[in-house]
Design goal:
Layout lengths: L8 H10 L1 H22 L5 E10 L8 H7 L3 H10 L6 H7 L1 E6 L6 E9 L2 H23 L4 E14 L1 H29 L7 H4 L17
Antiparallel strand pairs: 1-3, 1-4, 2-3
Helix pairs in contact: 1-7, 2-7, 4-5, 4-6
Length: 220
């Protein structure tokens, strides 16, 4: 007859509780391993998205907007932005830093160009994005020879994209929990699959055999 495997939860809990020291060590090693992983593979600084929006009321069709968005990363706009900044930036640095996207405004249907950058220094990047936005508006107004192009909002918006401290903490704690759970699974499996007989029911193959009698143990 094959042995029927039954899970005795109380027995498993007792087996796990007896190994409290091993669980504690697993927790400590997990914390150390998680901390090491967070240092090795995750950036130490927060990352932010800085962006501003420009409405293109002057665009006669949506097909013109991609061309306008390409103007954001031109030398003329970058040179004009450099003159507006207090800190020294080169034209190539600004061009490489800035990104431009375009879309339709959901409420008004007016094409909108978004000028932005990803950075770990939001204060400095806000100044760059503001300068590029102002330079772009002037450049596009000169190109279109009208003033219908305007900026939406007075200053750039800053959004947190990556929280370094929170991410590292979650990785460290998650690794420690994984170590402990793995050890618990191993202990439970070892207890469930153990061949020793702890109860009379174990010796009867889960009730498949009949108990004829019990031989008392003689005390010496």
């Amino acid at each position: 007859m094959e042995r029927i495997i039954e899970i005795d939860f109380q027995r498993c809990l007792r087996a796990v509780a007896k190994k409290w020291l091993a669980l504690l060590l697993a927790l400590i090693f997990g914390l150390l391993a998680g901390f090491g992983v967070s240092l090795a593979f995750f950036e130490p600084e927060n990352e932010y998205a800085v962006y501003s929006e420009v409405s293109c009321v002057s665009a006669s069709s949506i097909s013109e907007v991609p061309f306008y968005a390409e103007l954001v990363k031109t030398v003329n706009v970058a040179q004009r932005a450099v003159t507006l900044l207090d800190e020294a930036y080169s034209v190539s640095e600004i061009i490489n830093m800035i990104q431009a996207n375009y879309s339709d405004n959901v409420d008004s249907g007016i094409p909108v160009i978004e000028i932005g950058a990803q950075t770990t220094e939001p204060e400095k990047t806000v100044a760059v994005v503001d300068a590029v936005t102002e330079a772009f508006v002037v450049e596009l107004q000169a190109l279109r020879q009208d003033e219908t192009v305007r900026r939406l909002g007075e200053s750039s918006t800053v959004e947190l994209l990556y929280n370094a401290k929170q991410t590292r903490l979650l990785v460290t704690v998650g690794t420690a929990v994984a170590f402990v759970l793995l050890l618990v699974v191993i202990l439970v499996l070892r207890e469930v699959l153990a061949l020793r007989l702890d109860t009379i029911k174990d010796g009867l193959l889960g009730g498949q055999l009949k108990l004829i009698g019990v031989i008392p143990r003689q005390k010496k």
